[in-house]
Amino acid sequence: MSWKIGTRIIHEDLQPDPQTGMVTQSITPAVAYAFPDTDTAAKVVSGEKEGTCYGRYGNPTVKILEKKIASLEGGEDCLGLASGMAAISTALLTFLQNGDHVIVTKDVYGGTYSFLDSLAPRFGIEVSFTDCTNVHNVVDAIKQNTKAVYIETPSNPRLTVLDIKEIADVCRNHNIPLIVDNTFMSPYLQNPLELGADVVVHSATKYINGHGDVLAGFIIGNENIIKTMRKKFMGNLGQNLNAWDAFLIIRGLKTMALRMDRHCNNAQKVAEFLSAHPGIENVYYPGLASHPQYHLAGKQMRGTGGIVSFEVKGGTEAAKLLINSLTLAMISFSLGDPETLVQHPATMTHASIPPEERIKFGITDGLIRMSVGLEESDDIINDMEQALEKVIGERVVKS
Ligand SMILES: Cc1ncc(COP(=O)(O)O)c(C=O)c1O
Predict the structure, then answer these.
(1) Final residue before a domain boundary, out of 253, 276, 300
(2) Ligand 1 centre from 165 Cα, in Å?
(3) Among 91, 123, 203, 252, fewest CB within 10 Å belongs to which?
């Protein structure tokens, strides 16, 4: 009998322990693993036989989680890593080497931009930041040495939604792998592999763990590519996820469906409140009919997520005053936690992007990104309302 996603998130690939019957998973912290003989050791090292040879290449607790994430994303295999950036850099470095070119969606997470802008060129990798909302731009950006296309949808922080299937079709025709950062959606709301992507990356620090107490990343793809990433990249760079954090994610993951439904509902209400408020200039949320990719979002995503970005009338000063006036929402870099978190991309998450580039990416100095939490929506909105009153009051005093 097949289960629906909410049930699969809880039960799939998790069995009670055969010896003790315990329902929750145990943690295996071991780094070293003993073999009965040298032949067995050699077979495990070569991958001919299933097993763990050394903690930097994998771990039994992490393996349970990797299997689960692979099946939730509809992939053959998965690799657990120490952070979202470990997953992103490993995925990119697997496909790219000296002399190669990569096409990257225009508004990406600041850490990804920083890696591609400052580190990748040191390895001789050329990057084209491209507006991928129009697939013809992707086609035009392809060069003879293009070895990967990397997109993030919805994007951080402008919530731009890209047509994964359309871009995947172009990539397939040109034999170029498509990598998709699915962090903002989680496997509950969107599955890029089903839409034709080759590799999915996640910052599990966000919605997958969901409690703000673990840094982790995942890469999902076919068996061969994950094997290569595990041995040649993650192993050599020492980017493995540890057993303790994997245990916390296995626990956090069980409530992902409930959490994501609530994040989506709360964010929709916050976005609607903001778009009706006279103190607000623009609201970016794929669940609003005013969003440029509203219909695409409805087709490609099973929910519009928990992040709302917006601009307050009055620019940077007004934005800062609003953020500083919030009493429930906390000023913080992260997202996807139970708590509502708010931040100023131009000076926080996306500060590594030079101002002239930031503007091209739509990240104005007045932009605010809110990760709408799991609190009661009325409380989040009341907090916004009182902060907006302060901003409007300040404007009246000044004028
Ligand atoms: C969309 C996206 N991808 C990747 C990352 C990087 O994740 P981590 O902080 O786990 O390295 C972030 C972090 O905010 C993000 O927002």
Answers:
(1) 253
(2) 23
(3) 123
